[in-house]
Write a structure and sequence with these properties.
alpha/beta; Rossmann fold; 3 domains
Length: about 500
């Protein structure tokens, strides 16, 4: 770290950003961003995908260097070349995707890379317990991480940055994988942190949660700050208007379109695992025009269920019928060609070729069918024309169909995938977290497309960690726990809290 010079001390401001700018080839990520984060508060930063939030936080954490502007931490101007520089002045970050080794204990995970602070033995254990007790984190140093749930893992990530001396903590989408009870616990932890004088910068798409936990909110749009307001002085609808210029979308489906035609029938689907079945005699039916939602804490079999239905898992027993046809022995490509659209949980790993142009991504997984193919050959002209159709119909904001997928924001990447998977008249859509990590504008658009397809008779298997999304879109909700379906709920009467209890085995 290169500290340019000490500035006039400001006891109320923990982090001050002035005139921050960052440009990538062809893209202005940040322009003239100004933010003051008051010490001892939770300061939320909200904005659409592509608005510049992630770039801004990477600059504050030393992952990237700004092209212009200045950063002040605790009243001193700083310049970061790496995250270790940020940590040295008390800025830590907890990323959306946890960085923990399952085969190590909590102590080993926390001390890893910071052995010079307190070693790896009794001294480190004492320090971990001290921090855990001081902030009500409830962390047990000698537990294996593999034995812990999502909420506990997140508390370990917070403890890791506190262990390294962080006084300002950046949390990136911290509630995206938590059930309501875990969200309440996290917010309690954050209040404990701020009551002790620590500062939290909270990045989220969930505006109701932002207003529940934040003291101040900064809205970023198209790379620059729109306004900073007190959380108590603004509503979700007003924040949405500031972010995207429109009202907050609703996932409500309003009326039933369920028919008596069975589109997907799953019978006794079982997948052996190490010590217990990852899927244990799963059975359910989805009808044409019906959305079946599946709720569960991550790691309880949702991903394995999707992969088993898509033919991506070996060792699966049981039967999968699609429109009355047994597809249990078919390969993934054959199942897709039989009429299954698939929105994967991780769009980067399983949904896109990030360094390929959009039109090639349109072909991905559909390379054997029109308009992408003529006989055994790829029809580039047909694929390009249909990609342009998807870009127009699904409002994929891009300079053109030759743009590589990596250059698009997360929301636009997701809209391209949804458009691709809705093409070719599928009879079943398997949608795993279809709006995870996308902004409210893209979220509303994706909900609209799913609702429209449902009215036209599409059957949908919806996996989501967003309980409001599940309740709003689904005709029925099943809860999965330790590889078993443990309860069916009516979305018109169930509450997120009731689902959360069932998901954790408390209901």
């Amino acid at each position: 770290m290169n500290t340019a010079h000490a500035l006039e001390q400001d006891i109320d401001v923990a982090v001050r950003l002035r005139g921050i700018g960052k440009t990538f080839p062809g893209v202005i990520a940040n322009h003239d961003v100004d933010i003051d984060v008051r010490r001892g508060t939770v300061h939320a930063i909200v904005g659409e995908n592509g608005a510049g939030k992630s770039t801004l936080m990477k600059i504050l954490y030393g992952v990237q260097k700004p092209d212009s502007g200045r950063i002040e931490v605790d009243g001193a101007q700083v310049s970061f070349s790496s995250p270790s520089d940020a940590i040295k002045v008390g800025v830590g970050m907890v990323f959306q995707h946890f960085m923990l080794a399952d085969n190590l204990t909590v102590l080993e995970n926390v001390a890893l890379g910071a052995e010079e602070l307190h070693g790896i033995g009794a001294k480190a254990r004492r320090r971990i317990v001290e921090i855990s007790d001081a902030y009500g984190l409830g962390v047990e140093p000698d537990r294996l991480v593999s034995e812990l749930g999502v909420g506990a893992r997140q508390r370990i990530e917070i403890l890791k940055v506190l262990y390294r001396g962080a006084r300002t903590i950046i949390l990136d989408e911290p509630t995206s994988v938590l059930v309501p009870q875990e969200v309440d616990e996290l917010f309690g932890n954050l209040r404990e942190l701020t009551s002790e004088g620590l500062t939290v910068i909270f990045i989220s798409h969930k505006l109701d949660e932002v207003l529940a936990v934040a003291d101040d909110v900064t809205v970023i749009r198209r790379g620059t700050t729109v306004d900073s307001v007190g959380a108590s002085s603004v509503t979700s609808a007003q924040l949405a208007e500031m972010m995207v210029g429109s009202e907050l979308p609703s996932p409500s489906t309003e009326f039933s379109t369920v028919t008596d035609r069975e589109m997907l029938e799953v019978l006794d689907l079982t997948l052996p695992g190490d010590g217990r079945n990852l899927l244990d005699a799963i059975s359910f039916t989805i009808h044409a025009g019906e959305i079946l939602g599946v709720a569960g804490v991550e790691g309880n079999g949702q991903a394995e269920l999707v992969e088993a239905i898509m033919g991506m898992r070996s060792g699966v027993t049981g039967t999968v019928l699609l429109a009355g046809r047994d597809i249990s022995s078919l390969h993934t490509r054959q199942r897709r060609e039989a009429g299954i659209g698939y929105i994967p949980e991780d769009r980067h790993r399983h949904g896109l070729l990030l360094d390929a142009p959009l039109w090639e991504n349109r072909v991905l997984g559909h390379q054997g069918r029109k308009p992408n193919a003529k006989g055994p050959f790829v029809d580039a002209a047909g694929a390009r024309a249909d990609t342009q159709r998807i870009v127009d119909a699904y409002d994929v904001r891009t300079p053109g169909i030759d743009t590589i997928a990596r250059a698009l924001s997360g929301g636009n990447q997701q809209k391209l995938i949804v458009g691709r998977e809705m093409s070719g008249e599928p009879v079943l859509l398997v949608a795993a977290h279809p709006t995870r990590g996308v902004d409210i504008g893209a979220q509303g658009a994706i909900w609209d497309h799913i609702r429209t397809a449902r009215r036209a008779g599409l059957a949908v298997l919806l996996i989501s960690a967003d309980l409001d999304e599940l309740i709003g879109l689904s005709d029925r909700i099943e809860v999965i726990l330790r590889g078993q379906l443990v309860g069916e709920f009516d979305p018109s009467t169930v509450t997120p809290q009731q689902l959360g209890s069932a998901m954790t085995g408390a209901g």
